[in-house]
Structures are given as C-alpha cells and as structure tokens.
Amino acid sequence: MGKVEGQGESWHGHVTAVTVAPEFRRQQLAKKLMNLLEDISDKIDKAYFVDLFVRASNTPAIKMYEKLEYIIYRRVLRYYSGEEDGLDMRKALSRDVEKKSIIPLKRPVTPDELEYD
Asked: C-alpha angle 11/35/56, rounded to 5°?
C-alpha cells in the first residue's frame, strides 16, 4: 500500500506497507508491488523519488530493497515505538535527473525532525 505526498522537490511516492503472507513469499510478489508503485509514482504522479521506512534490524527487507536499487538516505533514531531506529530508504525516479533526492544525510535525525508534507 502506498501514496504520493510532499511538495516541490519533496513530491514523492511513499511505501506505507508491503506484506506478503508466508505461503506466498519467494514468488517476487513484493518486487512486483514495489515496481507498480514506482511506475505509478514516476509516470502518472511525476514524483521525484519513492521512499519507505524499515526497521534497522530487518536485514532481509533491507537487502530486498537494496536489490531494488533503494539506498539508505538517513537513519531515524528511535523511529519505531521510541525504541528501535528506522532507516529511510529512497529510490530516485526519472524526474530527479540529478539524483538529489538520494544524496544520503551525514547525520541521523530524530522523528520530530521529519517533515510530513
């Protein structure tokens, strides 16, 4: 499930959740869902990038997103329940010709620093 949000160069597709039931995993369903959201965000909504948040401890998901060409844009301290860090991962779309949206931040941020446009 996803949406498009933001303003200006922060106009982006956002992955709210990707869940595949255990019996249907390893069939590339998550990849197909991600590609669909990326295509809609790129071609229809003309977004600059797609982003998502993932638990820093969720190594299988991080690896999957990296295979889909997402980069770790920034670490969000105590993003999950005030305890576990989250990673904000991004993938630039065709409108972001200079790939400015995926230049990683050099320092972690706190949840109150996140912009919710």
From this structure: 75
